[in-house]
Amino acid sequence: MRLMHWNPRERAAGLVSVTTDGWRGEIVTPLIPRDPTSPLRSALLNERAERLGELRILDFRVYDTVRVEENGPGDSYRIIDRFKIAIGVERPA
Q1: Is 7 helix (H, G, I), strand (E, B) or coil?
Q2: Residue 71 pLDDT more than 90?
Q3: Contact 49, 9 (CB under 8 A)
Q4: Is pLDDT at 72 greater than 80 in this prediction?
Q5: Are residues 63 and 81 in contact, defined by beta-carbon separation less than 8 angstroms?
Q6: Which residue has the higher pLDDT, 66 or 31?
Q7: Residue 57, number of CB atoms within 10 A of its CB
Q8: Number of alpha carbons in the 13 Å side-chain half-sphere of residue 46
Q9: Across residues 52-76, what is the average pLDDT?
Q10: What are the pLDDT digits (tens) for 13-51?
Q11: Rounded distance, CA 78 to CA 32, Å?
């Protein structure tokens, strides 16, 4: 059996999800380890920051951020950022 070495950055890019209908949506950053020295934690938070930056460029604004604690052996949490189009910006139909 071959051991797979994963790159935390690549794994984070695959875990962080963005859903939108064009006017509003959410970014879900799951499985964030509580251990501040974890490379995955750092990669996930960096990926989240990049996605939030992309939304700002596209005139979306975050209006709600929720931290959901996950209990169990993983000892992690997730962050859900809800966003919507900035007021006064028109989107094509």
Answers
A1: coil
A2: no
A3: no
A4: no
A5: no
A6: 66
A7: 7
A8: 12
A9: 88
A10: 889 999 999 899 999 999 899 899 999 999 999 999 999
A11: 6
**Per-residue tokens: 41:** 């934690």
pTM of the model: 0.81
- C-alpha span between 47 and 51 (Å, rounded): 6
Q: Which two tokens stand for residue 31?
A: 């499985």
3-state secondary structure 18-76: EEECCCEEEEEEEEEECCCCCHHHHHHHHHHHHHHHHHHHCCEEEEEEEEEEECCCCCE
The CB density around residue 30, as the number of other CB atoms within 10 Å, is 15
Amino acid letter at 33? P
| pLDDT computed for residue 22 by the predictor | 86
Q: How do 76-85 and 17-20 pair as beta strands?
A: unpaired
Question: In this structure, what token pair is assigned to residue 23?
Answer: 């006017």
